[in-house]
Each structure stands twice: as C-alpha cells, then as structure tokens.
Amino acid sequence: MTKITELLGIEYPIFQGAMAQISTSQLAGAVSEAGGLGIIASGGMSADQLREEIQKTRAITNKPFAVNVMLMMENCDEIVDVILESNVKIITTGAGTPKKYMPKLKEAGVIVVPVVPSAKLAKKMEDLGADAVVAEGTEAGGHIGEVATMPLIAAVTKAISIPVVAAGGISDGRGLAAAFSLGSEGVQMGTVYLASKECPIPDSFKEKVIESIETSTVVTGRRNGAPVRTIRNAMTTHYIELENQDVPREELEKLTMGSLAKAVVEGDVENGSLMAGQILGNITSIRPVAQIHEDILKEYRAITLPKI
Q: Which Gene3D superfamilies has this protein been placed in (predicted)?
C-alpha cells in the first residue's frame, strides 16, 4: 500500500493517463476493474456524453475511477457540474488551474489531482488544496512540458508534502521501481495502454505503437508554445517543414485540424496525430489491461537492486 492507493481506495498505484477520444469508459473501466485508476478523458465531450461515459464505466466496474477535466474547455462549468451530479469522487485536471472549482469540489468530497510540469506549479496546486499531483515529464505523449521525468519527480517531491504520481516514460515494473526510488507514490501511464486489447483505437494505430522504437516520436508546436509529442509520420514531417519556414500559425492549425480523429477514429497513421511517448520501444505486443498490470507487478517484485 502507498499513500496514493490509500487515498483513492485502489489496489495498485497505477493511473491510466487521460487521452482525448481514447480514454472512454471501455478503457477506463478495464483499468479500474484490473486494480488501477481508470480515468475518463472529458476533453472534447459534451456534458451529456460525459454523463453517458460515467454510466457506462459504472456498468463495467464498481471500483474507483476518475474523470480528467481540461480546464481550458469552453464547457468546463457543465463538465464539473456533471461530475458533481454523478457523484464522481476523483478528478485529475490539466490545461489551467482548478482554483475556480475548488470550493464546490472540496465541499462535495472530490479528490483533486492536477497534472503538473514543474515543481513551482505543483506547489501552487498544493496551496490551492489539491490532494495529490501527477508530475508529468517531457517523455510523455501528447501535450508536454520541458522537464524530463527524473529531474521533475526529484524536484516536485522535495517541493510539496502531498503525494506525487510520476508520469512520462513509464510502462513496466522497472519504471514503477524508479518512480518509487525518486519519492513518488505511484505512476501514471498512457502509451502502454494504447497497446491494450480494451483500447478503442483502430488496429493500425496499435500496430504503429508496437512497431515503433524510442526514437520514433517527434515534438511539434514548440514555436507556438504548445508542444505535442507524437509518432513521426507524413503529417508531422510536413508540419515541421512549415514550422521551419515560419508560416503563419493559422496555416499550421489548418494542417492539424481533425488530425486526432484521423488517428483514433479512422486509423490514418500517416495523416493523423498519433500521440505517444518515448517509452514506445518498450511496448512490443498487444495485451489485455489485466495482463499489463500483472506483468508490471511481477517485474517490480522481482527487482533486486545492487548493494553498494
């Protein structure tokens, strides 16, 4: 047991990262049922869609699960209302500060876990009343910060007293052990679940995940202040060419418009946005979520550190 499993009432200190249009009830429910913390990604959902996903998740599992709230969303007020009405007791947050919502969330007994890219922001979240934080390093897939996981966790665990969950570049028992060594109370993983049987993405995307290696990702969007890590493909190559030509931001946005749906709905691995982390080289097969957890724990328990 760790502080995070005790806080959340989960069996294993393993979070499933929120991935837009991917982390629906199908995946979140499977992760929670297998002892981790499944997280529904509300980004891009309407209030009614989220309400339905919460209901579907409860049909899969009676174990704790969370909803991720992207605080920049225009319908964020409605999303938070659905969370409260549905009696969801755990949320993670990103893309902004939850300050506006903290009073009613805390009044309702909701555990709030912001995702942070720095020790400075982690401290701000602790001061706001967050119960824990996910510190996500730049190795992660999707929207990222600039600090790598190892120095980030070392800094965040020194800066705050609430539990820290490590994220970015973690997929197995070795990563779990490393996270614990740095002072975290658990891990959050996303990329490894892309290669799960329960993940609702096309097979072409899953195949791309398991054939990729640690150097297969690229970061786009740094010039616009919104870096995103994805698997390199025709779309990212063209995007970087345009970035280097200093084309207007609007032209870059036009190129990426609808690219996430192309990947996760259509399975277009050349023109879609295949968000994934640098841990890709460690993921070589498609497994059920329960098997992923079993493999992580088996490897973790077998680790013997050298005596010095």
A: Aldolase class I
